[in-house]
Amino acid sequence: MRHGSQARHRARRQLPGLLIPLRGREFRLLWTGMSTSLIGDGILLVALAWQVYALSGAPAAMSVVGFALSLPQVATLLFGGVISDRFDRRKIMLGTDLVRGLVLAALAALTLTGAVQVWHIVGLVAVYGAASGFFGPAFDSLVPTLVDSEELVQANALDQFVRPTALQMAGPSLGGALIAVGGAGLAFAVDAATFAVSATCLLLMRVRRTVDESEMPSSSVWQEFKEGMNYVRGNVWLWGTFVAATFAYLLFIGPTEVLLPFVVKHELHGTAGDLGLVLASGGIGAVAAALIVGQRGTPKDYMRFIYVTWTLATLAVAGYGLATASWQLAVSCAFVNGLEAAGTIAWATAKQRLVPPELMGRVSSVDWFISIALVPLSYALAAPVANAIGVQNTLIGAGVLGAAVTLAFLYLPGMRSPKQLVVT
């Protein structure tokens, strides 16, 4: 037995750091399904923006769509966190994948038949967003049950490798190509198919039950929710980071998502392919960050590392407003996403190691909820602010103010000294 253990240890060490978690069958299936659906999400980034601006050339229309997508997600997140701590997380993810796949199939049918209107898109993405509110907490709390504790840095680095590779490189590039061949309708249809693949992978998984549904806790959903909130409230490093993200996202998410496609299409007179390449450059930056952090690990002063990288990532958003060519947008996007990914790997690992497993779903949902609570407002304000002060000034202001807010929260008393985290 000892020799076998030593052999497995040597085999683990012989693998590149980023690939170590893939030794496990269940994590491989989760990774395969996630990678496929993320490619679909990358397709959606391009197809949705292109279709909305084709129906209405004004940023206001994209603001409404972004608002409709994000508000239902915010509304369902806290409930989704409680549910993920009470029921089979794999089944929750499976259900959300099926719902989102059906939404995209309906959107594809409407677009391919030429019947789609902006209000159709608004209604469908609202359902999509509501389902997404259940997926995030379930996914975050499932990962630590599939890999060993010492492999969490590598698992999170792999996640941050896959996300940009699929979401910002392969997905947008494929999305631009699909739009060129068959329009946005074809892109939506392919995205729907990716969710079918993800659902199949989840069905094939054999996950050990993290919650015994036959022994459900006697406490109510509300009591369990309060338990999660009390835990968050007692840890500055949690609630402080959640609130920091709230204000940073308010300042830059809406302007970035609404105005970056507008800049490419209407100010630089680019194509869907150009937008895909800009987003893909962000993926390259994030992939590079994931490879480096996955191999080297996180530094000992991890909270400072998280906040400095996130501050610089937000500051790089200002580059979108200063750019006068697509290649400059691409460089800015690479810095934004690379720095964001580096901080996110450290942040996800900190949560997974410090938060008790039975609270992970609720803490994750509170993280998601507070962090994106003002994102709908950010989408709603992006177009009016851009009309008032200009697109470029809006993007520059978003980056500078967002960076200042992020850095300020690093200096909250107790922020830099969470307990129990073991850094490897």
Structural features, described:
The chain has 424 residues and is mainly alpha-helical. It has a single domain, classed as Growth Hormone, Chain: A. 81% of the residues lie in helices and 0% in strands. It has helices at residues 2-14, 25-55, 59-86, 89-112, 118-146, 152-204, 221-233, 236-267, 272-296, 302-315, 318-322, 326-354, 360-372, 375-389, 391-409. It is globular and about 50 Å long. The two termini are 26 Å apart.
Which terms would index this structure?
424 residues, mainly alpha, globular, disordered C terminus
**Number of distinct helices:** 15
Structural class by sheet pairing and helices: mainly alpha
- Portion in beta strands: under 5%
Helix and strand sequence: HHHHHHHHHHHHHHH
CATH class: Mainly Alpha
Query: Over all CA atoms, what is the radius of gyration?
Result: 21 Å
Uncertain runs are 1-13, 212-216, 420-424
**What average pLDDT do the residues reach?**
80
